[in-house]
Amino acid sequence: MTRPNILLISADQHRADCFGFMGRNVKTPHLNQLAAEGTHFTGCITPTVVCQPARASILTGQLCRTHGVHDNGIDLDPTIGEKGFAGAMGQAGYETAFIGKAHFSTYHTFAPTGTPECLKSSASYPDDWNGPYMGFQHVELMLVGHNWWAPEKPPGGQHYERWYHMEGRGDEKTKLMWENAGDTKGAAQTWHSKLPPAWHNSTWTADRTIEWLKHGRDEEQPFCAWISFPDPHHPFDAPEPWSRLHDPDEVDLPANRKRTFEGRPWWHEKVLTEEPTGNKEGAEIRKAYSRIPEQTDEQLREIIANTYGQIALIDHNVGRILIALKDAGLDENTIVIYISDHGDWLGDHGLILKGPMHYEGLLRVPMIVKGPGVPVGKVVDQPVSTLDLGPTFLDYGGAEALQTQHGSSLRGLIEGDETRDYARNEWELLPTRAGVSLSLQTVRTRTKKLTVDLISGAGEMYDLEGDPQEMHNLFDDPKHADLQQSLMAAVHARPDDVGPIRAQVGMA
Asked: Contact at 8 Å (CB) between 446 and 383?
């Protein structure tokens, strides 16, 4: 059999349940169809709940304390990154490509670091530079990708930023991007962007992918490509008309949206109130960007409706990519995967965005797989992780791993009836983020979940079957001592290849 192409499509901060086919009132026709024609994993989690560590784990197949990117602001070592799935697939004869937001290295750095993603170093890369980078032979990158900040002006920036400014209209575009075309009821970081969708980074990501599929790849080689959209990450700034596609009065609010710390581990409150350490300016930016106060129902509706607009725009562009794949005659021999790096609380427990409260909305991520040999309409509820993607690609591509893998191939779950005991998440939280130090380990089975801070010994444990809203913390409850003991045994079964704590080179 001809080795299949691999097309990995990722979003940033897309919850596992935010799809029309999952019962939420969001318009995702193309992703609905992808799930109907393929296999959907309902128990997939992120290996870390923030961007840089999660993305490094997807690439390397390793947990964050092993590859070393254990918080945002830490660069992935290229000698490790180049041995990830892209490097391994390249050695096996695949053409490899990356288009979109990578975030393997830090962009908001304290000083130049020399990486292509560093805002202070990007100008040293010529306009015709297209890689290699982290094992990918061809890359087209955007740096920040989130419109709290304007795209870097040339000579800085990379491919998206240079395209954005090439007509000399970058300032005009940014003015439109930051202008609110409607009333969003004072909802945090939410507006109807006036930036035309043709100039939006989600559109650019799809445009460049389609161009590469049509004209950029070597038709004699199978390919393994990672396409990375930067949304629906905050700020919630979908452009018109996508921002108005969902009526705020008709969105689905979380069943539990009251913020309370009763019965929760100590850090739930502390990470929202303590002063971040380190650079004072950076601390203020982090608080403004990452700490959203509890929102009214009216404001939460605006946030959710705009998030749905961001997702719908991604869905539209995924549809365009799938059409291009078919038009190129590649659809019959391409495995397409849709994932996200992590989720978003999106109002659960009165919280927005992400942090060390590993509720399901943040921990669980989408995973949809379609392609040759992939069952149609199959649903897999086993606990898996995006750590498993690299080993899966290597399995289908006949490639050998170049370094230790903490994940394992999903092929037995896709094509057979394999089961899994649990999936694992970890995060070494530095005090520069929220003023506290945490060493978090999470294990999730099909129906249970435990998170423990290895420094303080505090934790939380939930019965996801009997308590899907995660209202009752069972950690240290004597009635559930056996369950806690078994889940703690899984925590301590982590491989002993933990590396040292690394210093941050920037904020994110």
From this structure: yes
Of 440, 460, 398, 451, the C-alpha closest to 94 is 398
Taking 70 as the pLDDT cut, the residues of the chain under it are 1
Which residues fall within 8 angstroms of residue 381, CB to CB, at 6 or more apart?
A: 41, 42, 43, 446
Residue 5 φ/ψ region, left for φ over 0, alpha for ψ in the -120 to 50 degree band, beta for the rest: beta
Question: What percent of the chain clears pLDDT 90, i.e. is strictly above it?
Answer: 95
pLDDT of amino acid 141: 98
What is the DSSP pairing of strand 5-11 with strand 334-340?
parallel
Per-residue pLDDT, 32: 98
Q: What is the pLDDT of residue 1?
A: 54
Coil, strand or helix at 462? strand
Return the CATH number at 315: 3.40.720.10
309-366: pLDDT as tens digits: 999 999 999 999 999 999 999 999 999 999 999 999 999 999 999 999 999 999 999 9
Q: Report how far residue 240's alpha carbon sits from residue 433's, in angstroms, rounded to the nearest whole number.
A: 33
β-pair type (459-463, 378-380):
unpaired
pTM for the model stands at 0.98
Number of domains in the chain: 1
Report how far Cα 477 is from the mean position of its chain's Cα atoms: 33
> What is residue 370's three-state secondary structure?
strand
Residue at 209 is within a domain: yes
Residue 431 counted as domain residue: no
Residue type, 179: E
Alpha-carbon distance 180 to 55, whole Å? 31
d(CA 287, CA 272): 9
Domain of residue 334, residue span: 5-256+297-418
Q: Does the residue 427 lie in any domain?
A: no
In a domain, 52, yes or no: yes
